[in-house]
Design a protein that fits this description.
Length: 194
């Protein structure tokens, strides 16, 4: 009896599933939320500079950057994997049909009287299957695929943010060099005049 109880408790322990993942709460200071401009909410932080040239350059970099295209493709791939994982939790239906025409041989077979020599056969099957997620394998697969999608989206957003920051940094460095060159030319002109 003890052995049976120990075995059954061991089997029940094997059926246990992992608890659902709970994302930890993220506490931001209230002053940050009040100070953040509205442009930062949609991810287009560079609009605070109100520079059309900068915005055009960043938009062009988003359209032509290979790393961002790859990151976006990975997000699409992760969405497809999530859809596939969700589909495993639904029932599947399979239908098949076939038709055939046969004739009884006149040389080798003797047909009983009254039975036609030619006849048709029809066959149809309909299969419905559903996997009961007893141990939570399918639910865990969906959660893993959802987490992978979120990770891919975060990676894409990180590439986008880094690209926009690099373009803005390069743009302002170029503007600074142009300003320095203009000031240097002006200084040279003033010295020549004096």
């Amino acid at each position: 009896m003890r052995r049976i109880l120990a075995t059954s408790s061991l089997l029940l322990a094997a059926c246990a599933t992992q608890p659902d993942y709970q994302r930890p709460a993220l506490e931001l200071p209230a002053s940050w939320q009040q100070a953040a401009p509205h442009f930062a909410e949609d991810g287009r932080w560079w609009r605070i500079y109100e520079d059309a040239s900068l915005e055009e350059l960043i938009q062009e970099s988003f359209e032509t950057n290979a790393d961002l295209v790859i990151a976006a493709a990975r997000v699409d791939e992760a969405r497809g994997i999530l859809g596939e994982a969700r589909s495993f939790r639904r029932p599947t239906l399979d239908a098949q049909g076939s038709a055939g025409r046969q004739q009884i041989s006149t040389r080798t077979a003797v047909a009983p009287p009254g039975i036609p020599r030619e006849y048709s056969t029809y066959r149809g099957t309909l299969n419905l299957s559903y996997e009961v997620d007893l141990f939570g394998r399918l639910a865990a697969g969906v959660e893993a695929a959802r987490a992978e999608l979120e990770a891919s989206e975060a990676a894409r957003d990180a590439v986008r943010l880094a690209l926009a920051a690099q373009v803005a940094k390069s743009y302002f460095a170029l503007r600074s060099f142009e300003q320095q060159a203009r000031l240097t030319r002006e200084t040279l002109r003033l010295r020549e005049d004096s």
